[in-house]
Write a sequence for this structure.
């Protein structure tokens, strides 16, 4: 049983060879062609409104993402980490959460932020360099972004241990990337979660790359299979299928709430854009791959399904597009008019209780700044 | 003979290339350093020319990068680790402090640790969190590690080769905001020793000490001060552990005033150690206390206000004024 799947038996790092094709055990409920299919384990039954709602979210988060990339290009953001291609994974996972559940994102989960009701401007302020994320984590059930790879998986586990102690019926969703699975801390998180049967679900978006490193550099087995070594179930879901993601994540969160411990979900997807706006993916991957994944687009398939089943008409699609443009305009004006905080604020929340030396330094800073006012140094 | 105008990034690239040509045991380890050439392109083209066994695109695991470098060193290799950004060295700090730093002493010198840990460090590039840190004091505070901070393409070119040739572990700090600054590099020159500081501008009134990204700032301050008739002597420390204070002591005995500049928070930073040592050795020559200019004692702030955090020409001149005012 320890055989390496043939497609990864001899990976040539960075050779540009096609990535792992979808595995047989890929949970899928909506094919890339927009056809509803059944899965032996996972099912979902959504009404027309809910399906349209998912579509709307997918379109809006993509529109946001496109606008953010443009704003970065125009110098309004320092950086942007695009979610392009991962909309279904994020919107599906976000909708699986209940209000009292908690999510621990990386830096790319704008789609989950959206579903949790985080104002996009609070995410934009981080990438503009105005703050480190301006939203209220407790109120939204969506923790602040974590840039240090993997660190949040331990926080999620600890939070889940707290939930357990409270006897609460809620669950925790820890986001991570494929690259993150190599971090020691992520492995520690899975051991802790397993050992204490903590109500945490690890939601790994395998977008096939960690910057330039293809998934083969992190793992020779499909990632979801790792879970069994830690002692909990792993499942691979078509990350571009919002229905399957929603069904699988709901089931895993429900199991966690019921005391059945963690699950590892591998959402098999693709990073359609650059790693961030600082990155140049043409240096390490071939355009063919991108073309292949375009055929599996998460939004197109739901649109086809809705249209084909008569669940939405042209007017609805036009309405959503118009809403997207309005959202983009709001994000644009909100971002460009965002002022930096007063510099002195850097001293203010370092501790819950301000210290005397830091208060003195703060005063020194203010006096120094005032020395420039009208002085012409 | 061969003098080239190089950016610091390119100088590092050529220095690494030359070290790899000179010694087949040199192996580079890091995230995205192969095909991509590193996020700053410092290793650009090296995997193509030296192969995947010598330029290794590692899994995303910094403890792994440094921990395996230790094992490679035990097997006779000289690993050069690239940490992608300063803020991401911390998963490797266990390996660096409990292992890399102690192995020579605990083997009574039988096992050397020729490991180089390259870290792009410091701020000023408008980055998001964890991409602008100055962690040098943690390493300089750890016995067993040598710590170097280069400030210019010439030192970058030679320094990286010397660090790789060193039998001791070297934390090699590269000021990322200066990667694109250019200088003439004589590729055939006889380099200065790695572990020494250097006077980079002579002066009489105040001795200004800096390293890495702040050397340029100190030189700009000296330029501005000169216009006001004030003469600053600027010393590039170059090596933070061991500290080479001989040129500093010589200078301070003449000027009687000393200002230390670094981006890292002032409290318990390199400046504190230097101030103590200068005070001990130059006490009778000092006209003013040794003053420190550094980052404030707060987490590195968001990019839009980082300019207010980082020492700049004005803050250096302000300290110079205060030193002169005693
Ligand atoms: C500890 C640490 N090391 C390195 C980095 C730099 N870095 C940022 S994102 C990234 C790749 C992450 O890949 P993955 O986990 O697959 O997530 P993705 O970016 O693909 O969403 C790296 C290496 C970091 N942020 N933290
Ligand atoms: Mg990834």
């Amino acid at each position: 049983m320890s055989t390496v799947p043939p497609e990864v038996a001899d990976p040539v790092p960075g050779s540009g060879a096609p990535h792992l094709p979808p595995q047989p055990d890929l949970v899928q409920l909506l094919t890339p062609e927009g056809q509803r299919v059944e899965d032996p384990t996972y099912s979902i039954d959504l009404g027309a409104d809910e399906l349209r709602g998912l579509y709307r979210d997918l379109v809006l988060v993509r529109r946001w993402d496109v606008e953010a990339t443009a704003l970065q290009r125009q110098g309004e953001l320092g950086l942007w980490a695009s979610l392009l291609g991962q909309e279904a994974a994020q919107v599906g996972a976000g909708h699986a959460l209940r209000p009292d559940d908690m999510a621990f994102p990386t830096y790319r989960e704008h789609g989950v932020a959206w579903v949790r009701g985080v104002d996009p401007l609070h995410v934009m302020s981080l990438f503009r360099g105005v703050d480190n994320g301006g939203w209220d984590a407790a109120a939204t059930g969506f923790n602040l972004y974590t840039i240090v790879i993997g660190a949040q998986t331990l926080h999620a586990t600890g939070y889940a241990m707290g939930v357990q102690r409270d006897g609460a019926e809620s669950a925790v969703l820890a986001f991570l990337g494929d690259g993150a699975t190599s971090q020691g801390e992520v492995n520690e998180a899975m051991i802790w979660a397993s050992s204490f049967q903590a109500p945490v679900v690890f939601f790994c978006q395998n977008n096939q790359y960690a910057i330039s490193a293809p998934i083969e550099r992190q793992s020779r087995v499909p990632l979801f299979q790792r879970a069994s070594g830690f002692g909990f179930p792993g499942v691979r879901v078509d990350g571009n299928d919002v229905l399957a993601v929603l069904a699988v994540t709901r089931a895993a969160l429900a199991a966690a709430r019921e005391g059945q411990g963690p699950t590892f979900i591998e959402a098999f997807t693709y990073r359609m854009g650059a790693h961030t706006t600082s990155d140049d993916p043409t240096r390490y991957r071939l355009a063919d791959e991108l073309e292949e994944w375009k055929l599996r687009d998460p939004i197109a398939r739901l649109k086809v399904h809705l249209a084909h089943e008569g669940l939405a008409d042209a007017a609805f699609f036009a309405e959503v597009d118009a809403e997207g443009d309005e959202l983009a305009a709001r994000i644009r004006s909100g971002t460009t008019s965002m002022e930096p905080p007063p510099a002195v604020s850097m001293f203010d929340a370092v501790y819950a209780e301000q210290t005397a030396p830091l208060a003195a330094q703060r005063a020194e800073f203010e006096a120094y700044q005032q020395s420039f006012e009208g002085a012409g140094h | 003979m061969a003098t080239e105008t190089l950016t610091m990034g390119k100088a590092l690239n050529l220095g690494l290339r030359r070290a790899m040509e000179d010694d087949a045991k040199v192996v580079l380890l890091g995230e995205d350093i192969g095909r991509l050439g590193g996020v700053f392109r410092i290793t650009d083209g090296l995997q193509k020319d030296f192969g995947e066994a010598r330029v290794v695109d590692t899994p995303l695991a910094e403890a792994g990068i440094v921990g395996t470098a230790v094992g490679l060193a035990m097997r006779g290799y000289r690993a050069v680790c690239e940490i992608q950004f300063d803020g991401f060295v911390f998963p490797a700090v266990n390996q660096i402090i409990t292992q890399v730093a102690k192995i020579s002493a605990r083997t009574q010198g039988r096992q050397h640790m020729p490991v180089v840990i390259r870290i792009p460090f410091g701020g000023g590039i408008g980055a998001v969190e964890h991409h602008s840190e100055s962690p040098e004091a943690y390493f300089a505070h750890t016995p067993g590690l040598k710590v170097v901070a280069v400030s210019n393409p010439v030192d970058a070119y030679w320094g990286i080769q010397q660090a790789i040739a060193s039998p001791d572990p070297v934390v090699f700090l590269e000021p990322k905001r200066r990667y694109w600054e250019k200088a003439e590099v004589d590729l055939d020159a006889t380099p200065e020793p790695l572990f020494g500081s250097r006077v980079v501008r002579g002066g009489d009134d105040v001795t200004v000490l800096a390293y890495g990204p702040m050397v340029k700032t100190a030189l700009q301050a000296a330029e501005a001060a000169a216009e006001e008739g004030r003469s600053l002597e600027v010393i590039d420390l170059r090596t933070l552990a061991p500290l080479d204070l001989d040129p500093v002591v010589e200078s301070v005995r003449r000027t009687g005033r000393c200002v230390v500049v670094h981006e890292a928070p002032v409290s318990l930073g390199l400046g504190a150690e230097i101030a103590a040592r200068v005070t001990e050795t130059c006490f009778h020559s000092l006209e003013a206390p040794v003053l420190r200019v550094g980052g404030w004692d707060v987490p590195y702030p968001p990019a839009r206000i980082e300019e207010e955090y980082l020492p700049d020409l004005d803050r250096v001149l302000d300290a110079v004024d205060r030193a002169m005012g005693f």
Observations:
- Chain A touches chain B through 47 residues (CB under 8 Å).
